[in-house]
């Protein structure tokens, strides 16, 4: 029942979005044909530059938790070990794959072989991560100095500047072309 309601709401929203976009496009086209100077001034006010550097600055800030993490290494290792043991226990003793498949088929129309494979991948990924976490927790509790080399390799500062450089380039070649070539044609 809720699936039909969701589909109906999404379909109506898509249709409304397309209708409003079409009407806005018609008004913009009419304004461009009738008064290009007004559209040009509106375009200049609407086309303001937004820099991605200011948005990415909090993402590049270094947050140092290493001293706290190593100060309480036994507590952190014990908590990590408890979490990994719980995950291993859950996926080996508690998790019911047949029940999970039955619950999924009530809400989604997915082929059984695909869903069984996805649930198997979920269980395998969870178990692999839990075993890795248990090994790391042992190192953390017993010999945290063995993790320093791995930590130094993982704590490399990454800059988003190169990745965001294509977004920082202003591309205003279309507006002058459109406003230069606007004209009313009579057929």
Describe the structure.
With about 190 residues, the chain is mostly helical. The protein has a domain at about 65-155. Helices cover about 75% and strands about 0% of the residues. It contains ten helices and no strands. Helix 1 packs across helix 2, helix 5 (about 75-95) packs antiparallel against helix 7 (about 110-140) and helix 6 (about 95-105) crosses helix 7 (about 110-140). The radius of gyration is 29 Å and the shape is flat. The model has no long low-confidence stretch (mean pLDDT about 80).
Short recap of the structure:
The chain has helices at residues 2-34, 36-46, 52-60, 66-71, 73-94, 97-107, 112-142, 148-154, 161-164, 174-180.
Tag the structure with descriptive keywords:
187 residues; mainly alpha
Distance between the termini: 54 Å
Pick out the low-confidence regions: none
Rg is 29 Å
Shape: flat
Can you give the mean pLDDT? 81
Topology:
Layout: H1 2-34, H2 36-46, H3 52-60, H4 66-71, H5 73-94, H6 97-107, H7 112-142, H8 148-154, H9 161-164, H10 174-180
Helix pairs in contact: 1-2, 5-7, 6-7
């Amino acid at each position: 029942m809720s699936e039909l309601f969701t589909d109906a709401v999404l379909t109506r929203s898509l249709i409304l979005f397309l209708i409003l976009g079409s009407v806005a496009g018609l008004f913009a086209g009419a304004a461009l044909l009738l008064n290009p100077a007004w559209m040009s001034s509106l375009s200049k006010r609407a086309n303001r530059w937004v820099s991605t550097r200011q948005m990415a600055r909090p993402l590049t800030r270094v947050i140092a938790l290493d001293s706290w993490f190593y100060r309480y290494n036994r507590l952190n290792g014990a908590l990590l070990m408890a979490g990994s043991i719980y995950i291993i226990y859950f996926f080996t003793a508690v998790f019911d794959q047949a029940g999970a498949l039955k619950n999924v088929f009530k809400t989604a129309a997915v082929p059984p072989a695909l869903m069984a494979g996805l649930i198997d991948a979920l269980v395998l990924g969870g178990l692999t991560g839990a075993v890795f976490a248990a090994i790391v927790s042992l190192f953390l509790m017993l010999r945290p100095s063995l993790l320093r080399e791995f930590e130094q390799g993982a704590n490399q500062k990454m800059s988003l500047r190169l990745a965001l450089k294509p977004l920082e380039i202003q591309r205003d070649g279309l507006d002058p072309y459109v406003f230069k070539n606007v004209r009313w044609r009579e057929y």
